């Protein structure tokens, strides 16, 4: 079974996650930018990971523009954001990114964040995102840690999220292999 991982990353967390998933599953991994989406037809399982900006998963629209050609395959999507993954936060991302219109599996991961690495305009944008996240009832238990992000970097590696995605991909591979053997 062939697995493809595409990603869009700004500061490196999503790229690192995509590469780690690829290493653990034997998948091919490429940045979304520059990848010819028509080539997705050569794979059985396709994973897309994008970083979150203002609630929107970056690169997702482009990736889903070719959804019709992969709708019969296994499609997994993960987002990387500074918010700690919760079921409310996940539901909000599904809603904001219209993910329930597609037959996909979705995983919300937490990635690193350092406001000091951003350009002045990006800092203004991030302040807006932070205010929205802090005021969102879905994040009531993370209010304090989110507020700290205006001044302190967040360095995280979402082992739980990555392990889960790797497990699912490996289970899907087994299912495909069993189906192929059954047909032989
Ligand atoms: C301008 C800007 C807006 C952001 N907005 C959000 C957001 O709405 N929700 C969130 O969880 N994280 C948000 N983040 C944090 C990033 O998604 C997070 O740092 C992620 O790890 C970046 O992934 P990358 O390292 O692959 O670029 C934002 C970051 C920037 C720079």
The tally of structural domains comes to 1
CATH class identity: Alpha Beta
- In the CATH hierarchy, the architecture is 3-Layer(aba) Sandwich
Number of strands: 6
Descriptive report:
30% of the residues are buried. The protein contains 6 helices and 6 strands, in the order βαβββαβαβααα. The mean pLDDT is 93. By secondary structure, the protein is α/β, with parallel strands linked by helices. The chain has a single domain (3-183), classed as 3-Layer(aba) Sandwich (Rossmann fold), CATH 3.40.50. Strands 1, 2, 3, 4, 5 and 6 form a 6-stranded mixed β-sheet that branches. Bound molecules: flavin mononucleotide (FMN). Residues 9-15, 51-55, 80-83, 111-113, 118, 122, 125-126, 129, 133 line the site of flavin mononucleotide.
Please name the defining characteristics of this protein.
alpha/beta; 184 residues; 6-stranded mixed beta sheet; single chain; elongated; Rossmann fold; 6 helices; binds flavin mononucleotide
Brief overview:
This protein is an alpha/beta fold.
Which helices and strands, and how do they pair?
Layout: E1 3-8, H1 13-25, E2 28-31, E3 45-53, E4 56-57, H2 60-64, E5 74-81, H3 87-96, E6 105-110, H4 120-135, H5 143-148, H6 159-183
Parallel strand pairs: 1-2, 1-3, 3-5, 5-6
Antiparallel strand pairs: 3-4
Helix pairs in contact: 1-6
This protein binds flavin mononucleotide.
Residues 9-15, 51-55, 80-83, 111-113, 118, 122, 125-126, 129, 133 line the site of flavin mononucleotide (FMN).
